[in-house]
Every structure is written in structure tokens, then in C-alpha cells.
Amino acid sequence: MLTQDEALELYLVLWAMGMEDSWTELVHCGLITAPERPLIPVVRLNLLSHGNANAEADFRFDVHGVRRLAALFGLPETVITSSNDRCNSLEAVSILLYRLLYPRRLHDMSIKFGRSTSSLCRIFLCMVDYVDDRYKDKQFFDTELAERRMAQYCAAISARTHVEGVFAFPDGTKVPICRPKSMRDGINLQRSVYSGHKRVHCLVFQGLTTPDGLCMHFYGPYEGRRHDTTVFAASGLLRHFERHSSVFEGRTIFGDPA
Fold first, then answer.
1. How far apart are CA 10 and CA 1, in angstroms?
2. What are the DDE Tnp4 domain coordinates in residue numbering (predicted)?
3. How far apart are CA 80 and CA 152, in angstroms?
4. Which pTM was predicted?
5. Which of 58, 92, 221, 241 is deepest in the core (most CB within 10 A)?
6. Nearest Cα residue to 46 out of 6, 83, 82, 87
């Protein structure tokens, strides 16, 4: 049995001699073992053939909703990644939504979309970068939406708590990560991202939730050792409220101190 390096050298010799077909014969003889790879079915997603029930289960949107998202995102007809993976805009949005519907493995997605896991990963990351760049201001805080619904939010909370002026609830979440290398450029990364409270290595994200279930604000990631109040101060959310005092004057948010 040849080692991997020996097999590579042999293939280069055969290729130089114009005898590439001999490689297959060596594999059949058992001198070289070809790694078995997962099969990728020859299919392509046809969103229009999806029923609304299946679409909502797969993407959390019906067929019309996925098509509307693709239009609102302003995507070109063909999405091309930096590695030249190509797909139409509907498939790109479908891959994004399907992957975000936890839990989804890339291998499971390859069976549904008929693409390799590496291609699916690149398309997904391309879409994440695109959406993040296009809507980064709204991700920090959607002030226009808050202004339109402020009275509704305050009324909904007041009806259940008899507290006036509260419109949203801030909270932090810690997302576990793999343990990093202990030292890098003189910085103890393990200590920076370790949460003594949760006893895991993690990153901290901050969100602001309104009574209708929307996340009005996102901030992060921050190192896991930081307390939620530290992340809140660093986010500059209060400064944002001060800059838009016409919207947030007399309004408050309510969060637990933990």
C-alpha cells in the first residue's frame, strides 16, 4: 500500500507520461485507496414547487415571503461568491434562511440543495456579509420603527404591569465557543473570553427586545469575561437615545441587573 506522498509522486509521474488512466487501474488493484466522499444528489432547489407549509417549516417564510425578501434585499439575479460559486437570488436567500433555522448541518443542506458543503458555506457567509453590510445601521437600532410603534409598545407593557413609559427589555446572551490558544501577542485569550459565571469560554452579545417579539437592537461580540452592564455601557445605546431625544424623551427600558 502506497502512502499519500508516494501516491502523489506516482500520479505526477503518470501524468507527465500521459498515462493518467493508469491511476484508475492502480486503484482497482488496491495499491492506492481513494477516499470515500459523501454523495451529492443532482438536484436544485425549486422554491416555486414548495408548498407554503413546507416553505414555512424550512425557511420560516412562505414562498411569497422568501421571494419578497430576495427583492427587498436588492440582490442581483445571480449571486456570485468570492470563490465564483453561483446561484440565483432565491436560492441564496433560501440557503441563508435554511441555515439560520437551528439546528442545520451543512451535510443535511447538501442533500436538499444539491451542493457541496464548502459551496453552501461560502454562499451562506456571502449572504451574511451582504445583509450585515446593507443593514448594519438598523441592526444597531431601528429608530424609525421604534418611533412608529413607541406608543403601542408602552401601552402593551403598561397594560400588564401598570408601569408607564417602558418600551423594551435589554438582555445579554453568552454564546459558547471553543477554547482559544492560551496566549497570542502577549494577550491571555483564554482569560479574556472565559465567563466565571457560566464557566465556559464564550462571546457576549446584547439585544433589546420589544413586546411584539422583535429584537430592536444588537451589539457585539464582546469578550466573555465582561458583565452585561459593561457591555451595555460600551454599546453606546444611551448615547443613541440622547441623540434622538425627540423619540425617546420620557421613555425607558427595563432590564435585570444580573
1. 13
2. 171-257
3. 42
4. 0.72
5. 92
6. 87
The rounded distance, in Å, linking the Cα atoms of 8 and 16 is: 12
C-alpha cell at 14: 503518470
162 grid coordinates: 401598570
Secondary structure class of 86 (helix, strand, coil) = strand
Q: 44-48, 111-115, 127-131: lowest mean pLDDT where?
A: 44-48
Give CA angle at 22 (16, 23), nearest 5°: 85
Distance in angstroms (rounded) separating the CA atoms of residues 139 and 209: 12
Q: Let me know how long the chain is.
A: 258
Residues 6+ apart with CB under 8 A from 14: 20, 22, 23
Contact status, residue 26 vs residue 14, Cβ threshold 8 Å: no
Compute the Cα dihedral for 191, 195, 201, 203 and give only its sign.
negative
Give per-residue pLDDT as tens, 144-191: 999 999 999 999 999 998 899 999 999 889 999 998 887 767 778 888
* Mean pLDDT, the chain, integer: 88
Per-residue pLDDT tens over the stretch 56-111: 999 999 999 999 999 999 999 999 999 999 999 999 999 999 999 878 899 999 99
Grid coordinates standing for 46?
425549486
| Cα–Cα distance, 130 to 159 (Å, whole number) | 40
174 by DSSP, 3-state: which?
A: strand
The answer to whether residues 125 and 117 touch, using CB atoms and an 8 Å cutoff, is no
The answer to whether 258 touches 226, Cβ cutoff 8 Å, is: no
